[in-house]
Amino acid sequence: MESLVVSFLALLATYARMALGLVVSIAVAYALGYAMAKSRRAEAVLLPFLDVMQSVPILGFFPVALFVFVSFFPRIGAELAAVFLIFTSMAWNIIFGVYQALKTLPREYLEMARLYLNERLEIAHVVIPFTLRSLYYNAAISWANAFFFITASEVITLGTEIHLFGIGSLVVKAFEDGDLATAYVGIAVALLGNVALYALVWRRVLTRLPQLPFVDLWRVWMKYGAYVVYAAILLLAYLFAEYVATAPLSAGDFAAAVAESTYLSLFSLARVLAVILISAAVGLATTALVVEKPSREVAVFLAVAVLSSIPPVFLYPLLAAFIKGEILVLVLLLPAAALYTVINTLAAWRDVPRDLAKAYQISGWLYLWHILIPAALPYIATGLLTTWGGAWNGLVVAEPFADVSGLGSYMAHAAGRGDVNALFASVAVMTAIVVATNRLLWRRLYRLASQWA
Question: What residues pair up with 157 in beta bridges, in sequence order?
């Protein structure tokens, strides 16, 4: 009974951190998404920057987050660092979702809004309503993804461990102490809590799409929030430079770590590409099922969201006895990473012209290439972009559990032993991969999606 009460209180503490992270994520998403949609200059700067940031694993933010928050707020620094880390696992796909919605907003709507509405009415009656579907779907995705990484947020490891009270740290501590009863009670409470949350809250939000409150407040935030975020980025860059100046960095060790990270990244890249392909196939298949029978949407969404929110530390004891190696990595990666594509693509089912397909009896590959994919492409673009980042994040957890070589495993071991050279080198290599992919693929895919919308 005691373990049940403690688990329930721990889940509430975790949900409080996640709720705060979600509110900040939505505010930042509207500020940056609106800025990118309105300004090509902001888009050119922010899109690759955000792509890099969403692909940097939570471990990559550990040193700076701890240094900044513990230095400025000694008493609650670790707690603020945990909320910040939760934010880093939530914000990016919400930002890209708002941006994608605004980029595909029909031009005639914007032209009419500029002619007949002021800025406040344009935001209230055009911008926010058009982004709500993408916002709510991506907010649900972010919640699941943050829970997937909750153990990494509540058990902060950089040479030493900091345990914060929450369901993730409770389960990890119970497993470490051999208290299996408490661990499994915590897992059960977490799963039941997520099921109840998605059934009672997210399902109603997605079916009703309620208007955001305090439209005037959102208008002010979108107008000035981007500048606040820019200033925050510059401040963090300065603090990061200050941290690096005091960190035990070595040019020789860093160069060696870059070389090793580059080699290991080839294995990780292959796994990420496999996750991308599987996610795209599952997302399109799921959307086709819902288009055929729309009443399936809620059941599919609840099943995918709850499954994807289960942290690997919850799954590993059950899976490790049956599968190992590369298959185990994919099984641990897919729930959280594929979630982005599946849910984003699922959100597109209302845009699929079902009557057209029925009227002309279009089916098979013709239906897939000429109806389903064009209708879903804007959502596929956002889904695959965030799946790409989610998969790189997930490698940091999945590869060490599966005991395979790769960039994620290398980064996790570097954080565990407090090796700043190896940690920064692995983040730098991952950043280079993300920047190259952004230029070669994602920018072109968004351009194509905006043309087809």
Answer: 161
Nearest to 329 by CA among 412, 435, 417, 428: 412
Span 413-431, pLDDT tens digits: 877 776 777 877 887 888 7
Q: Residue 161 and residue 158: Cα distance in Å, rounded?
A: 7
Rounded CA-CA distance 431/392 in Å is 11
Residue type, 449: A
Q: 269 is written with which tokens? A: 């890249």
Task: Report the C-alpha gap between 57 and 91 in whole angstroms.
Answer: 13
Angstrom distance (rounded) from CA 72 to CA 60? 20
Q: Which residues contact 221 (CB under 8 A, 6 or more apart)?
A: 27, 30, 31
Degrees (nearest 5) of the Cα angle 240, 242, 248? 95
The span from the CA of 451 to the CA of 448, in Å, is 5
Backbone φ and ψ of 311, nearest 5°:
-65, 150
**CA-based nearest residue to 347, from 391, 293, 292, 286:** 286
Please list, in sequence order, all residues whose beta carbon lies within 8 angstroms of the beta carbon of residue 199, skipping any fewer than 6 positions away: 302
C-alpha span between 53 and 434 (Å, rounded): 9
214 in the Ramachandran plot: left (φ > 0), alpha (ψ -120 to 50) or beta? left
The model carries a pTM of 0.67
Joined together, the tokens standing for residue 266 give 């080839």
| Overall average pLDDT of the 131-142 stretch | 81
Strand, coil or helix: what is 311?
coil
Sign of CA dihedral 273, 267, 435, 343: positive
Q: Which of 23-32, 38-47, 265-274 has the lowest mean pLDDT?
A: 38-47
Give tens-digit pLDDT for 68-96.
676 677 667 778 888 888 888 888 878 88
DSSP bridge partners of 162: 156
Nearest-5° Cα angle at 322, 317 to 328? 75
Nearest CA-CA partner of 110 in 216, 133, 214, 119: 119
Q: Are β-strands 160-163 and 155-158 bridged in parallel, bridged antiparallel, or unpaired? A: antiparallel
Is residue 144 within 8 Å of residue 339, measured between CB atoms?
yes
Distance separating alpha carbons of residues 112 and 363, to the nearest angstrom: 37
Q: Are 126 and 288 in contact (CB under 8 A)?
A: no
Torsional sign, CA 317, 318, 320, 326: negative
Euclidean distance between CA atoms 69 and 118, whole angstroms: 40
| C-beta separation of 280 from 365 below 8 A | no
